[in-house]
Amino acid sequence: MLYRPRDKSGHLHEDALQAYLHCRLSDRLSSGILEPHPRIVFLDREPLAASNMRNDLKIQTASLDGKPLTLIIEVKWSDNAEVSTSLVEQLGKGYLLENRLTHGIYLVGWCGRGASGLESLGTALEEQARLYRQEQPKISIVPVVLDLTWMPSTGTSAVP
User: Fold this and answer.
1) Cβ atoms within 10 A of the Cβ of 141, count?
2) Which backbone phi and psi does 119 adopt, to 5 degrees?
3) Prior bond to 47 cis, omega within 30?
4) What is the dihedral angle through the alpha carbons of 29, 30, 36, 42, rounded to the nearest 10 degrees?
5) Number of domains observed in the structure of the chain
């Protein structure tokens, strides 16, 4: 599902990763993960936001004291040309700041390709998030890099 088909440029489709994450989050959020304090949770994929932009994933619920909580998740593959700038430009400035939201997750699926290695990418994104928090203290972005490297059944570690 995640690795086929690629687009014309050979890059992986972000839509497939979004759909997979939406499915898994839907499963987890509806199966009592919020126990012992169950709440109604709304999970939307690509809802319309400010400036005609679409968030990849948006989770909304209420805190224990009834205050509304919103979390935006921006999804990228590691081979995306904008992976090194989208944490700040797209998620921070575009989705969070413009919509007056405060919390986001920048989720990068590591496919074995990218401008740097898996650990280097994670470290660089954590530093970007730290610097952005200094600039915008009310905004919190957590970068997450998931190792989704394709492992063919032959036992080799080559990426298709």
Assistant:
1) 25
2) -65, -40
3) no
4) 60
5) 1
8 Å CB contact between 72 and 104: yes
Q: Which helix (H) or strand (E) holds 131?
A: helix 118-135
Burial of 89 (0-12, 13-18, 19+ CB in 10 A): exposed
Q: Chain-wide mean pLDDT for the chain? A: 79
Is residue 154 in some structural domain?
no
In the chain, the amino acid numbered 69 is: L
Residue 118 is part of which domain span?
14-147
pLDDT digits (tens, 9 = 90+) for 125-141: 999 999 999 999 999 99
pTM: 0.79
In a domain, 153, yes or no: no
Asked if 18 and 57 count as a contact pair (C-beta separation under 8 A), the reply is: yes
